[in-house]
Amino acid sequence: MFVLELSFGDDPDRLAARPAHRERLQALHKEGRLAMAGPFSDDSGALLVFDVPDAEAFAAILDDDPYYRTPGVTIVSQREWSPIVR
Fold first, then answer.
1. CB 60 within 8 A of CB 40
2. 86 has a pLDDT exceeding 90
3. What is the pLDDT of residues 6-52, one digit of tens each?
4. ∠ Cα 68 77 6 (to 5°)
5. What stretch of H or E contains 11?
6. Which end of the chain has the smaller Cβ count within 10 Å, N or C?
């Protein structure tokens, strides 16, 4: 599994790109590659948990979604995670 933490800025491009991004997230969830995702309660950023087999699959997901390169969206951290309870 991989965890992605995002930080959000005030750039209006972020809000314009969000609907397409959320559609991608829904598709990933249906495919079983996204365990959970959502914004922090203060909308300062978001946390996403991907259930993919390796770093290459995780990188491909990030590369496929332009939201992660949109002004106003900053990747704070991306880490492999080994949960002991699921």
1. no
2. no
3. 999 999 999 999 999 999 999 999 999 999 999 999 999 999 999 99
4. 45
5. none
6. C
Mean pLDDT of 55-62: 98
CATH number (domain holding residue 11) = 3.30.70.1060
Maximum distance among all Cα pairs of the chain, rounded to whole angstroms = 39
Give a yes or no: residue 85 inside a domain: no
CA dist 50 and 86 (Å) reads: 13
> What is the distance between the alpha carbons of residues 70 and 17, in angstroms, rounded to a whole number?
7
pTM of the model: 0.92
By the 8 A CB rule, do 25 and 37 touch?
yes
